[in-house]
Amino acid sequence: MSSFATKIYLFNQRHRVILLDTTGAYHTRRYNIVYAKNLKAHKGTENRILIEMVNQDQKPVPITDMVFLFRLISNDEVLLLEKELVIVNDLKGQAVLTLTAQELDQMESETMGYSIEQVANINEPMFVDDNAGARGWIEITDSIMPKFTASTELSIPDQTGESYTSSIIETDDIYMHTFQLSLEEFTGTLTFQGATDTNYWYDIQDQQFIDSSETSGININGYHPYIRIQVTDNTAGTIRTVLFR
User: Fold this and answer.
1) CATH no. for residue 132?
2) What whole-number distance in Å separates Cα of residue 115 and Cα of residue 98?
3) Which structural domain range is residue 206 located in?
4) I need a surface site. Which of 38, 144, 166, 172 has the fewest CB within 10 A?
């Protein structure tokens, strides 16, 4: 009998960016990264990337009382995501960027741009290389989950004040189901229901919203040949779109 061993590695992505030292200090070294490495984010899971702020001499920069915004920018110059970094060691200039599965699920699997800006007291760009490049590149990849498939839009009646249901989705025996909800000042409860045939429906999970105007993702796991959404307690607002894949 033959046996095989495969090594896997657990590591955190660490990425350095330049926060220019404007104290007037003389720097003897040129930062040696002319072309910044690409970041990588895996769809279907949470990605934590450690961002280290250094000066022109590659020395850590204290970032006490600073605020950093990460922006994800599509290739056609659309702002896809903006979120604040979480500072984990202010004296060593370290902050963490977390990209969730729900955030990445709405995006194409491709290489796109990103930038980081310091926005406390004074707005200033973070440089990803020593050529004053303030935009880097991040690869959004399907490595954890299957590649992107086109979404199907559910139809939902435009009404309030009573219980009603969406159109029915046939899941084709897929185990993981993802819904993207786009709401406008919506107050109500959405109950995701499943069925093995369309004559008997059971509740899978529900989500309550209060005056919500957001686009959010909901994942449902399990074998449900048919899925629909039941809307109850809808006292205000509208459901603009519901996408499924």
Assistant:
1) 2.60.40.3350
2) 14
3) 152-244
4) 172
Give the global pTM: 0.54
Assess if residue 87 is contained within a domain.
yes
Q: How far is CA 126 from CA 53, 71, 74, 172, 224, in A?
A: 8, 12, 19, 46, 47
Which DSSP letter does residue 223 get? -
Task: Give CA–CA dist 9/122, Å, rounded.
Answer: 40
> How many Å apart are CA 127 and CA 71, to the nearest integer?
13
pLDDT digits (tens, 9 = 90+) for 50-73: 888 888 777 888 888 889 999 999
* Token code pair at residue 43: 């769809």
Contact at 8 Å (CB) between 241 and 153? Answer: yes
What amino acid is encoded at 38 in this protein? N
Whether residues 100 and 53 share a domain: the answer is yes
List for the chain the helix, strand, coil content (%; round to 5): 0, 50, 50
Dihedral sign, CA of 202, 214, 241, 175?
A: negative
